[in-house]
Amino acid sequence: MSQDNPDKAAASPEPDTTTAEGAPAPAPEETTAAAAAEEVAEQTTVAPEETDEDVVVEELDAYVVPAGTVVVTGPTLVARLGAEAFGTFALALVGLGIALYTGLSQVDGLAVALGFGIAVLAAIIAVGHVSGGHFNPAVTLGAAIGGRTPWKDVLPYWLAQLVGGILAAAILFITIPSTLPSLITQDTEATAKTFFTNVANGFGEHSPLATASSGQVEFSLVIGLLVEIVLTAVFVGIILGATDRRSANVQAPFAIGLALAVLLLVATPVTNGSLNPARSTAAAIFSESWALGQLWLFWVAPLVGAALAGLIYRAFAAEPVEDNLLEEDDAYVTTDDVLVVSER
How far apart are CA 319 and CA 299, in angstroms? Predict the structure, then answer.
């Protein structure tokens, strides 16, 4: 019986390490590394998603801002001030224009009130989305106290509103025919200022009731102050409620316009109906001197009323702080990292 030859076993051929082309095969370590690299490449390569032909893919400019960054959105301050000036201009031009010629056209207080109401309604629809549609320093103050407008915008808004109102009154003043005041008043010394005084706000002997009764009955300073405070508070409260994000905002301009009209019907016999310091200032500048002397009341009363409305809204009806991002706010401070997408 034969025995295995140890030399033959030692001389048995080793495994072939060459490829079919005759090149040396890669070492096992190299093969493992290459396979791992290919696997990683397959995992990190994402195939493009198939999109339906009807789906339009739109690229957006997006960036991430860290916590504490102020994110500015919406119209610029210049655009908002322009909108406020335009809206107040339209309000004063229509309202004061109708009131100025009531004696000639036989229109009454209802027409004047509706004129102011429709004018503010139209202005809010036209440019309210730009600035918030205040057109009234009292509304701006109430909105700021109610947390609806940044405090830094209050003074610029007031200035824009005054410019718009005064410009409208100036146009009405310079277009008064020179002979009309004396014809209306039957006084040869009557001037355009005398005629324009009919639209100025006043109390006491200069209240409309005193004029209509030849001074026999008048509304005192206290009554005028109280009426303007209460009516302005109601007006600003309606605005804050109607423009709240939880209400049907599409109807807000109509609610605001109608509210202004009916409130002016109440105020007109007492003070000639202000509720708006910009309107009162514009009329007083082109009226007789007494109008400027009584102008203080038509700043103090509407601002006090607006402040009351803002405080009441803030206390009982305001949105939670974390959900208080309002349309007229131009900036907010992020508390977390935020992805901001700017649509083109």
Answer: 29
